[in-house]
Amino acid sequence: MERESMEFDVVVVGGGPAGLSTAIRIRQLAEEAGKEISVVVVEKASEIGAHILSGAVFEPTALAELIPDWEEKGAPLKTKVTGDIFHYMLSDSTAVKVPNLFIPKPMHNEGNYIASLGNLCRWMAEQAEALGVEIFPGFVATEVLYAEDGSVKGIATGDMGVDANGEHKGSYTAGYELHGKYTVFAEGCRGHLGKQIISKFNLDEGKDPQHYGIGIKEIWDIDPAKHDEGQVIHTLGWPLKNDTEGGGFLYHAENNQLYLGYIVSLSYSNPHLSPYEEFQRWKQHPKIKAYLEGGTRVTYGARAMIKGGLLSLPKMSFPGGLIAGDNAGTLNPVKIKGSHTAIKSGMLAAETVASVLLAGDEGGKDLVEMQANFESSSLYDELYTSRNHGGILHSLGTFLGAAGIFIDQNIFGGKLPFTFRNKDKDHETLKPASQCPKIDYPKPDGVISFSRLDSVFLSNTNHEEDQPCHLQLKDASIPLSENLPKFDEPAQRYCPAGVYEIIEEDDGSKKFQINAQNCVHCKTCDIKDPAQNITWVAPEGMGGPNYPNM
To answer: pLDDT averaged over consecutive 10-residue blocks of the chain (550 residues)?
Structure first.
């Protein structure tokens, strides 16, 4: 069946902060010029915000540039940060409160808001639609389309109604082709089309490898007597070892709710480590558990986060389009914030595209001016001063690295006269399982800690079961022939949703099982698999988690 096509001036892939800010800014500039630029945003989730997960302490600087009257227009930013607390956890029962004087300046949160990024994106979508942006939720961009000259000419959305064997079901509907003069890829961290674009056009040539973490988050309703609206708490140390980067957060949001979560760098070396179980252990620490006792867990989710910073940032332009936000890697690793930088990068992409379209450009060019626009922006300045964060932690470990970052940020203002680099790729850092201590994780108590399957239930994850598996193995033999004997198949542990299992059959043989229905689209498997054998591709539209307010 031939696919129908639709023509737009700009196609934006991804309805997160980068994609929506791109769309909004283009339409603003078109209105100012009295001209028409048609923009469409394609979002794979069932609705805008349903796949968005972030801490989040939100810095409103870029939003104020994009929509100066955001308060009057009802942006869901209500809870101002009232204070910062930082604990260094020494053991499972002790912790030291770090004086704010010794916290890197960019980590202070005066003027910021505790917010649901998903709800903020829903509001941004309303602003975009009011400006004439078309938004297509539930449509998955599955394929990059190329013109005869090799430039990108748009995307194709996935077919609906295809069974697990690739055959058409009675409900089959062909996907659509969305053609644009320019296409902006803003899919978020490890976007599957952005990954292809970076590879095809060698956008990361000469850059440090990209680096990632996995963030796992829960929302709790807690006892009002324990709630301190606006309080922000971060932790370092236990339960992770000094050679493993990561830490926890606990944010007192509105309505007696607590946003809490844990981030583990995907550069960890012990294949026995489970980020999900580390999070469950962390919640049992007295400094955290005290808030949760008597409370109720409301929802759960997980998402990979990009954290390589400026040194890993690819070229953001290619023939026919741009790459923006976390899809490129614009998160500030010192602040551990990527929402305001995603918005700013989307604005830069919009200004770059709009300037040529308003001048009569017909598309397909490599908009190399994006680099100059970026380098003259506040975003570049911010990422430049945070460039040493990952390299310092990688070189010195958590304890000494924290001191090094303090010196870098508070004494040198992020402008050390030399640069720390991290050339190691996250998927190459695992040591053989035989060389690493096994980790004895306690069983969940069902009160503070929970099983992965119980957690996935709270994420409202759902996929059409009779469809091709969206977790594709390049070589189906590798999990059992290579990863199991060498690394005790780490997919069993790095996945926060119980997708991957080693099943022992009645005859004693083993089977590698993929429970794709559980997938919360975190992309960790695509990043951390030591053989780079797993490729995450988009499932049928509207599949995955449905986060209400993450």
So the answer is: 90 98 98 98 96 96 98 98 97 96 94 98 98 96 97 96 92 94 98 97 97 98 98 97 95 98 98 98 98 98 97 98 98 96 98 98 97 98 96 91 93 93 96 97 97 96 93 97 98 97 92 96 98 96 91
Report the greatest alpha carbon distance in the chain: 73
What predicted TM-score, i.e. pTM, was given to this entire model? 0.96
What residue type is assigned to position 124 of the chain? M
What's the CA angle centered on 388, arms 303 and 109, to 5 degrees?
Answer: 60
Tell me the CATH number at 151: 3.50.50.60
User: Tens digits of per-residue pLDDT, 242-284?
Assistant: 999 999 999 999 999 999 999 999 999 999 999 999 999 999 9
In a domain, 57, yes or no: yes
Contact by Cβ (8 Å): 68, 163: no
Give the closest residue to 191 by CA, choosing from 303, 339, 115, 110: 303
Q: What is the DSSP letter of 432?
A: P
Alpha carbon of residue 146 to chain centroid: 27
Neighbours of 342 (CB within 10 A): 31
Question: What is the pLDDT at residue 1?
Answer: 61
Full 3-state SS string of 485-497: HHHCCCHHHHCCC
ω into 253 cis (within 30 of 0): no
Signed CA dihedral, 547, 497, 218, 430: sign only? negative
The one-letter amino acid at 452: R
Nearest to 491 by CA among 455, 527, 441: 527
Residue 29 lies in a domain: yes
How distant is the alpha carbon of residue 453 from its chain centre? 22
**Residue whose C-alpha is closest to residue 265's, from 382, 398, 453:** 398
Upper half-sphere CA count for residue 337 (Cβ side, 13 Å): 24
**Is the C-alpha dihedral spanning 178, 182, 188, 194 positive or negative?**
positive
Rounded distance, CA 511 to CA 514, Å? Answer: 10
Token pair for 329? 């890697």
Domain total in the chain: 1
Query: Does 225 map to a domain?
Result: no
State pLDDT tens for residues 57-68: 999 999 999 999
The count of other CB atoms within 10 Å of the CB of residue 343 is 34
| CA-to-CA dists, residue 452 to 459, 519, 537, angstroms | 11, 11, 22
Q: Is residue 106 domain-resident?
A: no
Domain containing residue 204? 5-68+118-208+310-385
